[in-house]
RNA sequence: UGAGGCGUAGCGCAGUUGGUAGCGCGUAUGGUUCGGGACCAUAAGGUCGUGGGUUCAAAUCCCGUCGCCUCAACCA
C-alpha cells in the first residue's frame, strides 16, 4: 500500500476537523459505536486513557479529603421535582424506567443524569451534628442524558464521569471548596493532560440547573472552539432545603448545610484529542498515554535485534515506563505510522546499525524529532524525555491558545473573532437579552467571566459593562 | 427536532435504458523482505441496512422504516 492510501485513512485536520475527529477516535480504536443510538463502547485503548485519568484524579481528590463511594443508578422521579430549577433543567434529557419485573412501576425511576438528588437524600439521613461536617464524597459512575445528537466522548447518551459532592456548615466553606476544586481541575488539566485551561464563573444562562453559581474550565480545541472540560457548582442551600440536609449546630440551632458538587467526564478524552492531535492522528500527553514508549525493531530477523529490544523493554519497565515492544510482522514503516496515529509519545527504533553503535533512535511524537541516544542509561533518557514532552506539549498548547485570544468592542468584533477561530473577550452589561443576542448573531456563547478584567461598555447594547466575558463557539 | 449527506465483503468505494455483484486495502497460508504504511503466489469473505410494492426479473424504480455522519438548537 502506498503513502496515498494512508493519507486517506483520516480526514485532513485542516479541511474537515469534525471528520478528522471521528476518523481518529474510531481508527485508533479508542471507541466504537454501540448498537443503541448515542452510546459508545470505550475500547481497551480508550479505557486505558480513562484509567490513567482516574488514578491521577483519585490521588488529588483523596488529598483533598474525599472518599469514594457508590450511589444507585436509579432515582425516584419524585426526587427531581424537589428542586424547581433542577427538574426544569434536566427533565428533557432524563431516561425513565417505567417497567420492571414484567409490571408497570408504581413510581417511575429516573436513570441518573447526575446525583445531587439521591446524594442529597442520603446526606439528609446521615447528617445530624456539625461535628460530622464537612462530608466529602466522590463517586465514579456512569450517567445518562438523552441527548438529541451525539459524538463519541463529546456528547453521548451514557458517559462515565466522577462527581464529587460535599456539604459544609457555612456558605463560605462551601464556596471556598468550589474554588479549590476548580483549582485542582486546572492543575490536573495543565500538568497531566497538558491542556491550558481558562477557569471562571459561568453566566446565569450557562450555570448548572439548581446551582447558586457554576464555575467552568474551558479548553481551546485546535479548531478554535471551546470545550467545557469540567465544572464546579456552589449549590448554596438549594439542595439542602429541597432534601432537608440539616444539622444541629454549636449554638443548638437546626441549620441547613451548604453544598457543592463538581465533575469531569470522559469528555476529557475528547479534549485531549482535539487539543493536541495533528494530521497524523493522536498526540497523547505522557502521563495518560496507555503506551508511553513503543519499541520498533528494524530487520528483526537479523541476529540480536529482538534480544536487544527485549532488553530495552525490560529496562524501561523496571524504570516504571509503560512500554510496548511491537514484534508483529508488519514493516517498520507501517508501525511508525500506526503508533504515530495512536499518539504514543516516544518511539524507539532499534536495528542492527544502532546495536552496533550502542545507540537507539528515539522519535518524539509531539515534534517528530529523531535523535540517537546511547543504549546505556536509556531508561533515564526516556523518563527525562517523557517529562520534556509533557512540558513542551503544555507550552505549545498555551502559546497556540494565547495567540488566539482577541478583544472585541462590538458584535461584529465578536463575530469576526470567533469566525477566525478565536476566543473573544468582550464587555457585557449582564442582561440576558444581550447574551442571547451574541449567540443569535455569532453562534458564540459566554464561556466564563474573565477574572480581574473590566471592559467599559457592553459589546451588544453599549451600556456600562458589568463583566468581561470570554465568548467562543463551543462543543 | 430543523437542514444536508450516506447505508453494497472487516474498511474505503464502483456498480441507472432493471438481467442475478466487482475493485483497492485488510484478513488467512507459504515464501522473499524490513531505517517512513514492501513484494509474489494462493485462498476465504456479500440474504446489497430493513419491511413492503411494481416487474418474468430489483443493489438499481416507488412507498415506509431503522441507523450513521455533518451543521443548527440542548448539555459534561
Structural summary, described in words:
There is one protein chain. The protein is of the alpha+beta class and 475 residues long. Helix content is 36%, strand content 27%. It is built from 15 helices and 23 strands. It has a 7-stranded mixed β-sheet with strand order 3-7-8-14-11-10-9, with helices on both faces. Strands 16-15-17-18-19 form a 5-stranded mixed β-sheet, with helices on both faces. Strand 1 and strand 2 (40-42) form a beta hairpin. The model is unreliable at 1-7 (pLDDT under 50). It binds one RNA strand of 76 nucleotides through helix 1, helix 2, strand 11, strand 14 and helix 11.
* Outline type: globular
What is the number of helical segments per DSSP (H or I, 4+ residues)? Answer: 15
| Percent of residues in helices | 25-40%
Number of E strands: 23
Find the structural class using helix and strand composition: alpha+beta
Give me the Rg, rounded.
25 Å
Major β-sheet profile: 7 strands, mixed
Amino acid at each position: 500500500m502506498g503513502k496515498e492510501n494512508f493519507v486517506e485513512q483520516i480526514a485532513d485536520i485542516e479541511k474537515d476537523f469534525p471528520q478528522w475527529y471521528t476518523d481518529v477516535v474510531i481508527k485508533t480504536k479508542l471507541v466504537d459505536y454501540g448498537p443503541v443510538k448515542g452510546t459508545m463502547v470505550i475500547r481497551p485503548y480508550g479505557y486505558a486513557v480513562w484509567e490513567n485519568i482516574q488514578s491521577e484524579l483519585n490521588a488529588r481528590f483523596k488529598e483533598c479529603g474525599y472518599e469514594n463511594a457508590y450511589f444507585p443508578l436509579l432515582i425516584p422521579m419524585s426526587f427531581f421535582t424537589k428542586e424547581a430549577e433542577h427538574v426544569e433543567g434536566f427533565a428533557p434529557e432524563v431516561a425513565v424506567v417505567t417497567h420492571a419485573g414484567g409490571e408497570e412501576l408504581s413510581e417511575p425511576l429516573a436513570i441518573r443524569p447526575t446525583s445531587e438528588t439521591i446524594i442529597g437524600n442520603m446526606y439528609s439521613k446521615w447528617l445530624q451534628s456539625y461535628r460530622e461536617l464537612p462530608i466529602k464524597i466522590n463517586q465514579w459512575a456512569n450517567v445518562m442524558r438523552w441527548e438529541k445528537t451525539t459524538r463519541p466522548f463529546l456528547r453521548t447518551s451514557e458517559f462515565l464521569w466522577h462527581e464529587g459532592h460535599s456539604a459544609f456548615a457555612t456558605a463560605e466553606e462551601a464556596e471556598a471548596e468550589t474554588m479549590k476544586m476548580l483549582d485542582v481541575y486546572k492543575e490536573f488539566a495543565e500538568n497531566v493532560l497538558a491542556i491550558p485551561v481558562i477557569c471562571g464563573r459561568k453566566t446565569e444562562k450557562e450555570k448548572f440547573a439548581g446551582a447558586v453559581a457554576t464555575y467552568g474550565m474551558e479548553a481551546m480545541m485546535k479548531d478554535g472552539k471551546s470545550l467545557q472540560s469540567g465544572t464546579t457548582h456552589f449549590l448554596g442551600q438549594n439542595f439542602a432545603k429541597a432534601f432537608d440536609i440539616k444539622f444541629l449546630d454549636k449554638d443548638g440551632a437546626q441549620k441547613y448545610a451548604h453544598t457543592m458538587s463538581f465533575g469531569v467526564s470522559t469528555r476529557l478524552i475528547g479534549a485531549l484529542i482535539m487539543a493536541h492531535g495533528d494530521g497524523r492522528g493522536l498526540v497523547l500527553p505522557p502521563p495518560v498515554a496507555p503506551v508511553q514508549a513503543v519499541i520498533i525493531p528494524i530487520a528483526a530477523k537479523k541476529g540480536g535485534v529482538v534480544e536487544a529490544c527485549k532488553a530495552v523493554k525490560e529496562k524501561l519497565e523496571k524504570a516504571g515506563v509503560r512500554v510496548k515492544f511491537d514484534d508483529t510482522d508488519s514493516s517498520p514503516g507501517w508501525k511508525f505510522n500506526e503508533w504515530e496515529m495512536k499518539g504514543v509519545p516516544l518511539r524507539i527504533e532499534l536495528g542492527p546499525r544502532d546495536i552496533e553503535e550502542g545507540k537507539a533512535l528515539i522519535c518524539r511524537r509531539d515534534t517528530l524529532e529523531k535523535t540517537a541516544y546511547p543504549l546505556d542509561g536509556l531508561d533515564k533518557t526516556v523518563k527525562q524525555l517523557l517529562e520534556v514532552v509533557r512540558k513542551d506539549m503544555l507550552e505549545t498548547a498555551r502559546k497556540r491558545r494565547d495567540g488566539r485570544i482577541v478583544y472585541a468592542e462590538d458584535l461584529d468584533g465578536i463575530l469576526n473573532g470567533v469566525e477566525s477561530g478565536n476566543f473573544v473577550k468582550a464587555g457585557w452589561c449582564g442582561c440576558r437579552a444581550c447574551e442571547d443576542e451574541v449567540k443569535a448573531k455569532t453562534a458564540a456563547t459566554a464561556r466564563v467571566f474573565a477574572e480581574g478584567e473590566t471592559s467599559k461598555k457592553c459589546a451588544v447594547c453599549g451600556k456600562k459593562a458589568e463583566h468581561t466575558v470570554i465568548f467562543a463557539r463551543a462543543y
